[in-house]
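Morning!

As promised:
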Amino acid sequence: MSQEPRGVELGTSLGYLLKEASSALRASMEAVLRPLGMTVTHYSCLELLAQRPGLSNSDLARGTFVSRQSMNVLLLALERDGFVTRPDKAPVGKALPTQLTALGRSRLASASAAVRAVEERMLGALDDASRLEARRILSGFVTSLTSGDT
Amino acid sequence: MSQEPRGVELGTSLGYLLKEASSALRASMEAVLRPLGMTVTHYSCLELLAQRPGLSNSDLARGTFVSRQSMNVLLLALERDGFVTRPDKAPVGKALPTQLTALGRSRLASASAAVRAVEERMLGALDDASRLEARRILSGFVTSLTSGDT
DNA sequence: TGACTCATGTCAACATTCTGACATAGGTTA
DNA sequence: TAACCTATGTCAGAATGTTGACATGAGTCA
């Protein structure tokens, strides 16, 4: 250790703090998902699929913030393990609507509970008003950052 | 597109929103750093080093939320390009204190300005009170999530 | 109809990061 | 002193993710 315990003026950057919080959340999620034999990427995909059945590969990629190529290899694995199913042929266009299987749903259930517990721990003693404020602030970040994107 | 425009109850998860904001920030940073021939990882390392000269490889890894093996390959590249320097032998223990070179400092200057502009755009119309509130909330997230870590 | 644009799925090559492992330096404690 | 324990740097292998590229299906518009 070549430095004093903790940050000085680096902690004044909200961007750094945002990254720090996001990393801490991901680490905590990985910690509770590992005993269940699941990764954060797997969970994110299944959770998204549970809330919005029939999403395509590209939809899922956007929703989990990865490239559609990465999502494709993930879906192949999930398909091989029997967690999701995709039709052989696209009903319309090229998009293949993905569906959770019963096995996928049951595996997701325990993982979802674990993740929800982590999120609740993250929110800690934040009252409802503060949670609303947090949502307002974070939503503002996203819209401000993505406003210029065509 | 196999779904309606935007989220429904998925947007109620502060964890998802946190990840979304962090991803948007990283994408915006990549966009402004690419013209400068720099990646987010490079910038993070240099910025950390500018604010805390003499950090070791492991220190930098912790500060940028990557493994020390990854940081090592990054430092080798930065060293090769003449942005940082490390002594051949450790002055104490095994930790090698890293220093920015003049070239590294000058390259960092423009990148730092660009990133600061992105952060300011993210904060948008947030007044000082809201920024304080944001810092309070995000700091709370980090401490709540990492409280159980020995 | 035909040309154009856009989104999608998929292939290949590359880059990045991580995990596992090992030896070493320093501190702690019996 | 000697036996731990922790932290560090580094090597090797594997997993994961990305970019670039291509063909296909659907909609748009002259």
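Strands of chain B lie at 84-85, 99-100.

Hope this helps with the figure draft.
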